[in-house]
Design brief:
Layout (H helix, E strand, L loop, with lengths): L4 E4 L6 E9 L3 H6 L2 E3 L12 E9 L2 E11 L10 E8 L1 H13 L3 E2 L4 H8 L5 H12 L3 H11 L2 H25 L10 H29 L2 E7 L5 H9 L17 E7 L2 E7 L9 H16 L2 E7 L6 H10 L4 E6 L9 H7 L2 E4 L8 H12 L14 H23 L3 H19 L5 H9 L6
Parallel strand pairs: 1-7, 8-10, 8-11, 11-12, 12-13
Antiparallel strand pairs: 1-2, 2-6, 3-4, 4-5, 5-6, 9-10
Helix pairs in contact: 4-5, 6-7, 6-14, 7-13, 13-14
The structure holds guanosine-5'-diphosphate.
Length: 454
């Protein structure tokens, strides 16, 4: 028997309506202790998908008019009995209703517990549950569209197609291993190779779309790097549209990492404005510089800032060197001043170079264009299933590498027994993506990041 949980499902703000949601075997009984219908019909008597107008009371006092919505198991969000009490959306009234519901026997819901119950009751799989979280936190149209597709099961359907083909393969191989003298249909080397190649290309398509769309749906970790005074903080502020980093003309002012998520067109950049890159005897600044170097190594995108009014120096060369082989855009700043910098050398070192004046907020369009091209967003197809996060990406990456190992094994003439182990590992990875084989730890971790009431 599941305990009846309750939480506020709407935001913690003043609004027209506030909703308190209850879920559990006794949800209707518990809500019935707080809610009285105008026509006195007990909530217990209502069938699913029914609404009643009435009042809510607690502590012997009737304190608001309300609408109760009743859903009966299994036809509800969680798959359990659910009641939603819609009261007036004042913070006090909503809290008072929640307290009354607790008095009546409900317990506070944990973060994400409603969705976790929906998952445990088989209403949605783990990928769809992550779609719910992604939809709630979506910060733009593309992110919302991708998460909605996920919630609708686009990814789950794609994964189950791949799974079906691999499981069929694995079952035939297991049969062949157990009964080598029998004729097992569809187990020629060609069929096997074709199945594995199709699985590999489907997994690759998912990974590519994730990479190409990540800048719009997830945002990318971006580092603004450059020597002191190049204009990193000013660029950060130009992108953020307000004062965030401390801008001064004294070198080494940004001593640690300042972080901010900004929108560039329809892309999201999780920006870190790092300490200026130069050798320093100042201990605090040196720690900042070391962290900046680490950030550059880990970043998915680097905006390498150069001061066009100064000649290239040792620090600039070091920056060019550390950007080699990474996704980096050279930003030649201070174009409002007389240029003395060797731009040719920079253009040679970077795939994309942009000229701007952060101080005068000029050149934003060019920067947007360069980042868009660098991140491959034009190749992103929002109609295709989209992975929601790094966990899902890792499952698909691992599954693809198992499929690749199996393909290599096939070419090298490895036994079917050994090939089957690799195919089974790919299957396991995909099952953990959809949650059919996810550990309790993974499941708890995923739901702990939800908000309470969802
Ligand atoms: P950081 O050390 O790289 O973060 O550099 P800041 O952003 O603190 O800028 C250093 C100095 O350069 C400040 O005085 C800024 O006002 C100035 N600065 C930044 N960008 C521009 C620009 O585009 N044009 C001009 N003329 N000055 C700029």
């Amino acid at each position: 028997m599941s305990a009846t949980i309750a939480a506020v499902a709407t935001g913690n703000c003043v609004s027209g309506i506030g909703i308190i949601r209850l879920s559990g075997d006794d949800a209707i009984t518990v809500a019935g202790r707080v809610f009285t219908a105008m026509d006195k019909t007990p909530l217990e008597k209502l069938s699913g998908y029914t609404a009643k107008y009435g009042t809510v009371s607690g502590g012997g006092e009737c304190f608001d008019n309300a609408v109760a919505l009743v859903y009966r198991a299994p036809k509800s969000y969680t798959g359990e009995n659910v009641v939603e009490l819609c009261v007036h959306g004042g913070i006090y009234i909503v809290e008072k209703t929640l307290e009354a519901v607790f008095e009546a026997g409900a317990v506070p819901a944990q973060a994400g517990e409603f969705t976790k119950r929906a998952f445990l009751n088989g209403k949605i799989d783990l990928a769809q549950a992550e779609g719910v979280a992604a939809l709630i936190s979506a910060q733009g149209q593309e992110a919302a569209r991708a998460s909605y597709n996920l919630l609708q099961g686009a990814l789950s359907n794609k994964i189950s197609q791949i799974l079906d083909s691999l499981i069929e393969c694995s079952a035939s191989m297991a049969a062949w291993v157990d009964y080598p003298d029998e004729e097992i249909p569809d187990l020629s080397e060609d069929t096997l190779r074709q199945t594995l190649e199709t699985a590999r290309s489907s997994l690759t398509a998912l990974l590519d779309n994730y990479e190409n769309g990540a800048v719009m749906t997830q945002g990318v970790d971006t580092v603004i790097a450059g020597r002191p005074n190049a204009g990193k903080s000013t660029l950060m502020n130009m992108l953020a549209g307000r004062e965030k980093s401390i801008v001064t003309h004294i070198e080494g002012t940004t001593r640690d990492i300042v972080e901010e998520t900004v929108r560039l067109g329809d892309m999201l950049l999780h920006l870190s404005d790092t300490a200026g890159l130069r050798s320093s005897k100042d201990v605090v600044e040196a720690i900042g510089i070391e962290r900046a170097m680490r950030k550059i190594d880990e970043a998915e995108l680097i905006l390498a800032v150069f001061d066009s009014s100064a000649e290239l120096c040792e620090d600039d060369f070091r920056l060019m060197e550390s950007c080699r082989g990474k996704r980096a855009v050279a930003v030649i700043n201070k174009t409002d001043l007389k240029s003395v910098i060797d731009t040719e050398q920079i253009e040679r070192s970077f795939e994309k170079t942009v000229y701007l004046s952060a101080k005068n907020t000029q050149g934003l369009g060019e920067l947007e264009h360069a980042v868009r091209e660098m991140m491959g967003t034009d190749k992103y197809d929002s109609a295709q299933p989209m992975l929601a996060n790094k966990r899902q990406k890792l499952c698909v990456l691992n599954a693809r590498s198992c499929v690749e190992q199996a393909l290599d094994g096939l070419n090298l003439g490895v036994t079917y027994d050994a090939l089957n182990v690799m195919i089974d590992s790919a299957v396991d990875e995909l099952l953990s993506l959809t949650g059919k084989k996810a550990t309790e730890e993974v499941v708890n971790h995923i739901f702990s990041r939800f908000c309470v009431g969802k």
